[in-house]
Amino acid sequence: MKELVFLKLGGSLITDKTQPFTPRPDVMDSLALEIRMALQAQPELRLVIGHGSGSFGHVPASEYRTRDGLPPRATPLAHRERDKTEENYWKGFAEVWYQASTLSRLVVNALHKAGMNAIILSPVSGVIGSDGRVLAWETTPLRMSLSAGITPVIHGDVVFDEVRGGTILSTEDLFSHLARALHPERILLAGLEAGVWADFPTRTKKIEIITPDAFEEIRPGLGNAAGADVTGGMESKVKQMLALVRETSVRSVQVFSGDEPGNLTRVLSGETIGTLITA
Q1: What does the alpha-carbon distance between residue 2 and residue 215 come to, in Å, rounded to a whole number?
Q2: C-alpha dist (Å) from residue 115 to 8, 39, 108, 237
Q3: Per-residue model confidence as pLDDT tens for the chain (279 residues)
Q4: Helical axes 140-147 vs 171-182, angle rounded to 10°
Q5: What secondary structure letter does DSSP report for 23?
């Protein structure tokens, strides 16, 4: 039986989140080589790769408040002014898509250079949202890609939403839906941080294991993300991942540093480093 693993390359890892529109190409190349080596060493391993938007998508998303959706129709504005507000929202929506897809192409370029067969399956073309959650997603292309031995790449993206008009779904939002459809065994979240800190941003107490029972105790110290992030910080990510280990086939989630050479290879091979989230 082949093992299915979801791997996220965090926006803080593949971009400089403190500098708008700044990729880290050397890091992408190194990560791509580690992924390729892991797949060669473990022919039974299948991956769905997701990545964050980092300093690309989060910058216009913050400016245009894209995740919030269109302003309510009841907003007391003249019709002409409301039209301008909506026009500005959709301008931002398209800009977020443009920046997120630009970064995704850089990620796939790195995978291609490493000799991998990878293909971008952008969520905006297949996902319909409902008030910030996935309502429907035709996952047949993902399944067929995996069956063909091609690694599908998804990313945090804008989607059309039946309640908000439009919104943004993070990679974790998308993984949460796909975990129920594709039944992965593990989820790996590679970022800059060595794990989940109990005292972020001081970073003196790394948490080794997080379980549902322990979450409320550690929650106050988790903090927000460093740099621009419109989809929530570490607390939001941990909460989503705890739900998956409770409710789906996911046995464990690991949060670890992908910036340390060799870490990604070690984790893909089954080694536990960073912080383990489990039921």
Answers
A1: 32
A2: 19, 11, 11, 31
A3: 689 999 999 999 999 988 999 999 999 999 999 999 999 999 999 999 999 999 999 899 999 999 999 977 544 444 545 567 899 999 999 999 999 999 999 999 999 999 999 999 999 999 999 999 999 999 999 999 999 999 999 999 999 999 999 999 999 999 999 999 999 999 999 999 999 998 888 888 999 999 988 888 888 877 655 554 555 678 888 999 999 999 999 999 999 999 999 999 999 999 999 999 998
A4: 70
A5: B
Q: Which among 187, 235, 246, 185 has a CA at the least distance from the CA of 213?
A: 246
Q: Residue 172 corresponds to which tokens in the numbers above?
A: 């974790």
CATH number of 3-58+100-277: 3.40.1160.10
User: Kind of pairing, strands 45-51 and 118-120?
Assistant: unpaired
Number of alpha helices (DSSP H) and beta strands (DSSP E) in the chain: 9, 14
Q: Which residue has the tokens 């964050």?
A: 52
DSSP 8-state code for residue 148: T
CA-CA distances (angstroms) from residue 191 to 97, 172, 227, 240, 248? 22, 13, 13, 16, 23
* 86: amino acid identity, one letter: E
Distance CA 65, CA 18 (A): 19
pTM score, whole prediction: 0.91
Contacts of 244 (CB under 8 A, 6+ apart): 175, 176, 179, 187, 250, 253
